[in-house]
């Protein structure tokens, strides 16, 4: 008698537990319209969150979810390389696909990543250079000089030379406190080094050039801080991420300089041992196709990596997208930086300390 | 002096009470706490120490001393922490005294002004200081508007900004232990000192101050420990010359993705802090013996 009641209660528990699980699935499903599906496939994508995640969601994830109702699509943050590496090391990979910056996913990073399956993702639809062994491009980003139009009404700055000319263009400069963020390249170009001769970087020459404006530099650590420095007028000029420079225009008289700009990229990687890597490559094939790539330009001032999309961008940022100015870009050599970053950073930190 | 003497038998009695001759089962109640501390504190700490010696090599520690950079940053970290702790002690002592002495509305206002900011996010308060103190900020606009200065005065991106921001955040950690100790002081002791002919200054230094020492100690250690690990406030309000070690550790993790070296830096900070606090404790026990022996 006692045994029987136990059995029943256990079954009741199982049923109840199943309901809880279904409820949890429903809750997580609300990200994409709240329809509970009998999910037989699943995919977890990590991004850096915030407005970037919102844009990817609208341009790529939501349409993909709609076309694949049986897929349980989960979003996760952050997309830090440190976190992915720790996951792979611990043998507990919970992310199938992750966005990443320029410093991760190079050919040297094979121990952490799955090679991109180009039999699923069509290489030929991408701009040259964006189909790499362990990562594939998603968007072309920019780090760009912006300035307060109200502070320089007579003549606008035209490039890095003017950025370092505090006599002609007085005022504070907001710059990224990251040694490989392009500040040394900017200093060298201002000092007369040709773009093709930038690497290997002459660190001492760059720091000497930076010394000439050191008192006028304000170092920023986060994009929000950079944007605040320009919109408040605390800085008269800055080298900002495009994702911060263009929104700054909405709140203050801010102009940007396209004559010389530093180019970077947003990439996708698949961590080694990802539980649903086949799903990840299938999703990538869609995300990088023409339509979602065009849709992305509606939400972010970034250029698409899809060749057809680059010619057909949304009207919102047309003319102000990196892909509209590919001829004047300065490409940062990330493989040089990967090899030299630790040593150059120590020297840079010493210099910062004064 | 009578205070120390009369305390001694009581303290001994207390120790005896805590050490029962026959062990009973009550200490088992400690096990969950011990397990928790081991899992979330000691184990990760040991893991970090292990991580800082990849392949049993000392290379990461050699790298710390290969340049003067890290030594200089550690020195400046301790310097900032000391200034902040001293500022908090000076402001906090007076504040705690006023709080203990006040009643009614004054007490409510003093308590709320202390605790309300305590509940607001550190990040938010740091950015609020930025808005107030920057060149185009409220304070500078006011100074320029009043004609007190022509060009904005640099209030942030220097040591001043860091100390203002950090002291604001850490003040409650100094005030609360002081209040707890001051509450327990019998006001009759001060009265007795006055009756015995001591001047107000003398009775403060000979009676009140020594009695608040435990509060000063815990407040100082708490504030100092917390300020050594500060990260976001010096990053936002400091200049390129006011780097604290936590910022370099964060850079090593976020920018350089070098877990081993960042672990070594963290271990170095722990060692230097332990040595500093150890020296502090030693100094204190020596001076206490002196006081007790006098």
TrEMBL record, chain A:
Keyword Signal: yes
Key words, A-Z: Periplasm, Signal
Keyword Signal in record: yes
Pfam family, one: SBP_bac_8
The protein, known as: Spermidine/putrescine-binding periplasmic protein
Source organism per UniProt: Mesorhizobium plurifarium
């Amino acid at each position: 008698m006692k045994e029987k009641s136990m059995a029943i209660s256990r079954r009741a528990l199982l049923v109840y537990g199943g309901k809880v699980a279904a409820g949890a699935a429903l809750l997580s499903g609300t990200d994409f319209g709240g329809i509970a599906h009998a999910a037989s496939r699943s995919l977890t994508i990590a991004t850096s969150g915030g407005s970037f995640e919102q844009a990817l969601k609208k341009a790529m994830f939501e349409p993909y979810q709609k076309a694949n109702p049986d897929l349980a699509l989960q979003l996760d943050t952050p997309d830090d390389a440190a976190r992915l590496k720790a996951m792979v090391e611990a043998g507990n990979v919970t992310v199938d696909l992750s966005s990443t910056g320029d410093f991760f996913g190079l050919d040297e990073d094979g121990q952490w990543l799955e090679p991109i399956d180009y039999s699923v993702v069509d290489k030929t639809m991408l701009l040259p250079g964006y189909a790499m062994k362990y990562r594939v491009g998603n968007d072309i980003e920019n780090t760009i000089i912006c300035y307060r139009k109200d502070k320089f009404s007579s003549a606008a700055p035209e490039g890095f030379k003017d950025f370092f000319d505090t006599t002609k263009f007085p005022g504070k400069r907001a710059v990224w406190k990251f040694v490989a963020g392009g500040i040394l390249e900017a200093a060298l170009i201002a000092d007369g080094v040709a773009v093709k001769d930038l690497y290997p970087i002459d660190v001492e020459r760059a720091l000497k050039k930076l010394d000439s404006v050191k008192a006028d530099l304000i170092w920023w650590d986060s994009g929000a801080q950079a944007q605040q420095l320009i919109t408040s007028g605390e800085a008269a000029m800055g080298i900002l991420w495009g994702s911060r420079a263009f929104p700054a225009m909405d709140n203050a008289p801010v102009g940007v300089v396209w004559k010389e700009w530093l180019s970077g990229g947003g990439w996708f990687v698949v961590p080694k041992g990802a539980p649903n890597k086949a799903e990840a490559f299938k999703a990538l094939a869609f995300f990088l196709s023409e339509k979602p790539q065009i849709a992305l330009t509606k939400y972010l001032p970034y250029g698409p990596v899809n060749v057809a999309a680059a010619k057909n961008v949304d009207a919102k940022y047309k003319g102000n997208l990196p892909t509209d100015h590919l001829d004047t870009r300065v490409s940062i050599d990330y493989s040089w930086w990967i090899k030299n970053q630790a040593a150059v950073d120590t020297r840079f930190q010493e210099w910062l300390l004064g | 002096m009578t205070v120390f003497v009369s305390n001694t038998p009581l303290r001994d009695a207390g120790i005896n009470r805590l050490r029962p001759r026959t062990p009973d089962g009550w200490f088992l109640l400690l096990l969950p706490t011990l397990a928790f501390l081991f899992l979330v504190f000691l184990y990760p700490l040991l893991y970090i120490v292990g991580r800082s010696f990849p392949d049993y090599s000392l290379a990461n520690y050699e790298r710390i001393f290969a340049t003067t950079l890290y030594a200089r940053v550690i020195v400046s970290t301790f310097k900032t922490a000391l200034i902040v702790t001293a500022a908090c002690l000076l402001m906090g002592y007076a504040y705690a005294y006023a709080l203990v002495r006040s009643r009614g509305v004054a007490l409510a206002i003093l308590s709320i002004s202390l605790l309300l900011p305590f509940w607001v996010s550190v990040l938010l308060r740091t950015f609020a200081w930025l808005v107030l103190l920057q060149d185009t900020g409220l304070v500078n606009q006011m100074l320029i508007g009043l004609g007190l200065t022509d060009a904005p005065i640099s209030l942030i991106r220097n040591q001043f900004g860091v100390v203002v921001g950090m002291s604001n955040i850490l003040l409650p950690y100094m005030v609360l232990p002081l209040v707890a100790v001051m509450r327990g002081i019998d006001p009759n002791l001060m009265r007795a000192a006055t009756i015995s002919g001591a001047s107000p200054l003398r009775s403060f230094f000979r009676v009140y101050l020594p009695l608040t020492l435990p509060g000063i100690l815990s407040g100082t250690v708490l504030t100092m420990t917390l300020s050594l690990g500060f990260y976001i406030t010096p990053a936002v309000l400091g200049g390129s010359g006011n780097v604290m070690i936590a910022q370099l550790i964060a850079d090593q993790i976020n920018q350089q993705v070098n877990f081993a070296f960042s672990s070594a830096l963290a271990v170095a900070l722990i060692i230097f802090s332990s040595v500093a606090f150890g020296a502090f404790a030693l100094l204190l026990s020596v001076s206490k013996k002196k006081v007790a022996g006098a």
